[in-house]
Amino acid sequence: MPRVPRWCGCLLAAVLVASASGCDSGGSPEEPPEVSVSVPEGFAPLPVPVQNPLRADRVALGERLFFDPILSRDRSVSCGSCHLPDLAFSDGRARSVGVGGATGLRNAPSLLNVAYRPTLFWDGGALFLESQALVPLEDPHEMDLPVADALDRLRQHPEYPALFAEAFEGDGPSIQTLTYALAAFQRTLVSAPTDFDRFRNGETAAFSATERAGFALFQQHCASCHAGPQLTTDGFENNGIVVTDEDPGRERITFSETDRGTFRVPSLRAVARTAPYFHDGRAATLAEVVDHYDRGGEGTPGQSPRVRPLRLQPDEKAAIVAFLETLDDRPAPVHTLP
Amino acid sequence: MTLRHLAPLGALLLALTLTACDSNSNEPTDLRLDLSATVDGAAFAAGQPFAVNGTTGQLDIAQLYLSGITLLHEDGREIAILAETPITVRAQDENEAEIQHTVTEQYVFANAAAGLSPVSLGEVPSGRYTGLRFLLGVDGLDNRIAPGDAPDDHPLAPKDPSMHWNWNAGYVFLRFDGLLDIDGDGTVDPSTGTPRDAASGQWRMHVGGGTNAQTVTLNQPFELSGGAMEDLQMEVDLAAFVSGLDFSDASDRWCMTGGCQDVVDTVKGNASSAFTVLGVQ
């Protein structure tokens, strides 16, 4: 029976069912056991490519690699350093800190439900979970390790070669097996049902009166971009934040000036735990985010017409924040006063 | 003269005709593309200085993709070169839907720094050709595949140094990494590590993006005699790609396609003159 990922007990109620007998997934006893992931009602079935099935041994290997600093130049940083389970796989910093204290340009996004994202990164620059894995690995502001060096380390490790061979039918560490293992693990990072889901399913008592009012305002002002059970269209919008040449947003990907200042519309699942906000972490709290949209953005060139002054009352803004806090799949943290 | 007397002569004529047919190459050719890289009229060597655009440069990485290779037969036929073994991998279509996609093109990945060796193009009809056409780059959906899904020995599989912009969807079609002499002392200068830094000798040019794949047509005739393996020898002058760029301008020395379309357009415009068909062996 494959072990349960270490983050599961403290974070998500997503149930990982390892079909060790092969019966749960309908497989034969000869097939390696696979992991099945429960998803909230309203979510599509978990997308799993035929090239990289959710084999339990592959997921376990990916989890170990995800939290292992062996993949950074000075062995000080792992994927998990910037994607902490307790913070819905974000890191609580405005901009992530890599090896040697290097900081990049962007805020580490949550990895919750990342299997559902058609493109990755704030600018949609990667199309597949597998190929995105090489970016933080080689980025000098993150792990700063050439992939060839990473593979050398893994090949010389006392345990990894055997783990790769087990998960990949005899194949050792390679770009393909390394990225497949990391992606397999990340596909299991799925939200558990929230009060929002329960409300959507007809449990009106799941929301307080304030949260209901916040949800109504959210539907009116925010849901054209933060739509559906995933709370995103997965599109790219200019939300009225001033950008610089250093980080022009999706323009870097499409080479089109019309995409200057556009960034991914993030999912709002577990948003209360993913502060600070926006692509560069400039908004410290959800209240600041709501204020930004209430002001109608900063009037940047190319700003989406959807971002316009809302003229919300203070209690309305508070209600929206209250609603946003219902999107978490665990109770809000208890802060102990000194 | 009776028919009996004519029979041996007829047999002789038939034999001669068949022999002539053999030498007229009805048999296909097992063709390879033998690409060689040059700079400044000499064989290219990684890390070695050469004259380029009025200054001195060196390239440590020089890699490119060719695809859509089509041989233009004298009789009007266009012989498209397809992969001997197509591969099926994930790709993302224009609606951002993940699909299974079969790569049928024969890709040629040329890593000039590592040394080039002939690439099999498979069997093609023999005869006289007026030239060939190909794409410098990776076209269409092939440029939106999951590179890690490709077998290790496939040209589109991940490379080291990389030919896939992992921060961006798609392949780098032409990659140059090296140094340039910017102070005019005749030797290349070091990189400061800062892109487009006027004080940096860093030379970096990565051309990609779907609209920047460039069709190259070489109207340079060659003949395939057939019946055996033959190498179509072609030369690529790496320095020719950057002809016309002003390396005294830091923005011409550092181009990752975004924000430097003028540099990319210059390279695209130079692509046809960078390639020369040398002949067949």
Descriptors:
heterodimer; A: 338 residues; mainly alpha; Cytochrome Bc1 Complex, Chain D, domain 2; 2 domains; two-stranded antiparallel ribbon; globular; disordered N terminus; B: 281 residues; alpha+beta; ten-stranded mixed β-sheet; five-stranded mixed β-sheet; 4 helices
Structure, explained:
The complex is a heterodimer of chains A (338) and B (281). By secondary structure, chain A is mainly alpha-helical. Chain A has two domains: 50-187, Orthogonal Bundle (Cytochrome Bc1 Complex, Chain D, domain 2), CATH 1.10.760; 195-327, Cytochrome c-like domain (Cytochrome Bc1 Complex, Chain D, domain 2, Orthogonal Bundle), CATH 1.10.760. Chain A has helices spanning 8-11, 56-66, 79-82, 129-132, 134-138, 147-156, 160-167, 175-187, 195-200, 209-221, 251-254, 286-295, 314-324; strands spanning 16-18, 35-37, 236-237, 263-264. Chain A has a two-stranded antiparallel ribbon. Chain A has a two-stranded antiparallel sheet with strand order 3-4. In chain A, helix 12 (286-295) packs across helix 13. The longest helix of chain A is centred in the middle third of the chain and has 13 residues, at 175-187. Chain A starts with 7 loop residues before the first helix and ends in a 14-residue tail after the last helix. The model of chain A is unreliable at 1-27 and 332-338 (pLDDT under 50). By secondary structure, chain B is α+β, with helices and mostly antiparallel strands. Chain B has four helices and 17 strands. Chain B is globular and about 60 Å long.
